[in-house]
Amino acid sequence: MDTFQIPDPLFLSEYLATALRDLVQYAPATPEDEQREYVESVRQAAQSLEGFKDPPHPHGFMTPQMEEWYWKSTGDEFYSREMVSNLPGMVERFSRLKPVLVGRLPDKQVTIYLREATRCFIYGFFQGSIALSRAALESGLNRHMERKLGSVRPMELKVNIEKSHLFKLISGGAAQLAEKVRKSANQVLHSKPATEALAFDVLVAVRGVLGELYEG
Predict the structure, then answer these.
(1) This prediction's pTM
(2) Using an 8 Å Cβ cutoff, are 13 and 50 in contact?
(3) How confident is the model at residue 54, as a pLDDT?
(4) Has residue 68 got a pLDDT over 90?
(5) Domain coordinates of the chain in residue numbers?
(6) CA atoms in the 13 A half-sphere facing the CB of 39
(7) Contact of 210 with 104, CB cutoff 8 Å
(8) Between 142 and 25, where is the model more confident?
(9) In whole angstroms, what is the distance from residue 72 CA to residue 64 CA?
């Protein structure tokens, strides 16, 4: 049986639309308007998973039987292709990172944020990596101030960095790294998309700050 010749797509909805145009060739008795309607319904369904979409197609999405079979099989092929094509880049990004060795394990929340920031970087989700790096930094500084000063009222990250440095809770070098993370995250969240280079620099910076906070 012939296999679909699918170009490398950016979104799952594009993959589905292309695959379905090929699929209808195996059902020549299906009226052309029904074929178009079916392709459009699947495209809309896929877009609803990727983000926002227009109001539902008047005739709905796929039938439950078709959805269960085709949705899973197409998703399996799409993500398998995507993972294989992305693997060299993932391995290269992984090899650039160094372990963070500390004398005391971070709090669970900090650990989760940093782990997910690292995984986002490895998988190529650079904006997500920067946003999670900022979350790891903010959580780490909050916990650090609580340990050193007791109960601390909530404050903006910029103020937190300044006070941590003022009270000598972090070094000048760590304060500079923390400020780099904060500014980079603000730029990404409010103005321009992240690059791989920026995501790497931010991840290294936040790992440096947290390494100092939990060194002993």
Answers:
(1) 0.73
(2) yes
(3) 59
(4) no
(5) 12-88, 97-213
(6) 18
(7) no
(8) 142
(9) 12
